[in-house]
Structure formats: C-alpha cells, structure tokens
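Deliverable D4.2, example record:
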Amino acid sequence: MFDLALVAFTTLFATIGPIDAAVVFAAITANASARDRRHMAIRGALIATGILLVFALGGDFVLERLGVTLSGLRVGGGILLMLMAIDMVFGRVSTASSTTADEAAEATTRTDVSVFPLATPLLAGPGALGAIVLLMGNVEDDYAKQAVVIGVMIGIMVLALVVLLGATQIHRFLSRTALNVITRVFGVLLAALAAQFILDGIKNSGAFS
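Output generated by the structure prediction step:
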C-alpha cells in the first residue's frame, strides 16, 4: 500500500501542481481583497476535488462504453504524462496543467477565478484527470487500493488549498529558480512513472505475444 501511495502522490502532485497553481493564482488575484482570495481558493479547491472525484469514480465506466481497454489507457495516459514530464524537466509551460496565453488574458478580466482558471485547468487539468483515471484503472476491483488513491488525491487537494491560502507569501518567498528546481525533480520522477505505465500497457496488451 505504501508503494501505491507513493506512486499516486508523485503522479498527482506533479500533474495537479499545487505550487505552480498558487503562483498563478497570486498573480491573477493581485487586486482582490484577502477575503475574496480566500473564498476563491476554497471554492476552487472544492470544485477541482469534485471534478477529480467524478473522473476517479466514473472514468472506468466511460472508458468501458468507449471500448477503451486498461492497456490502452496505460499507454495513452503514459504518453500524456510523458509529454507533461518533458515540459516540466525542460522548464516549459505545459497546457495540460496550466492556462494558455489566451486563457490567462481572459482570467485577468474576471472578478471570480475559482471555477476558471483555478479549478480547471490549473488544479483539475487534462493531465490530472488522465492521471487519476489511470491510477484508478490500475487498481480496478480492489476497493482498498482505490481508497488509497482517492485518499492521496484528497490529501494533495487539501495541501493545494493550504498553498493557495498562502499564495501571496509563497509567491514572494520562492524564487523562479526554486520553483523550477521543484518542478524539474518531479518531472524526472513523472517521466519514469510514465515510461512504466507505457511498458506495462504494451506488455499486458498481448500485442507481442
């Protein structure tokens, strides 16, 4: 169970990116009052958690209706995570876990950013959604392991909320270099996990049997 929790934590922390989300949140809410920032942070974290839970609990049902196998999910999800990991290692902005330039520009004109862009795509972006479905698919029919994955996800979202509430202080305290170091370390770990997901998917697909 510890190994599963460690894999889930590394994968979800890298794809949800609470620290990066907090930096963006601090920038786009610079003119908001402390009370409004707090309400937006709480609302955004709750909505993102709800979105992730829906995908965690209902993702398998949707995949079955689409005829997608677990092996296909592992390969496809692994490729998506690998692309994110490459962006993280080389310090590039990934649209799978952040906003595009147009989205960022639109966000600066909003008075409430809790749903967009905070809840999605900053916290519950394509990368995080793909990761939670992939992690839950890997432990299908084992409710104890599924509970571990969901528990880790909720724990990271609680951590994300704490970070968001202190976003302004974190933005001032952490330099861009420090953020890049953290991102690159998790990018390397995510790349290794993504490669393993792809290899497991190919191995279990029977394509080379």
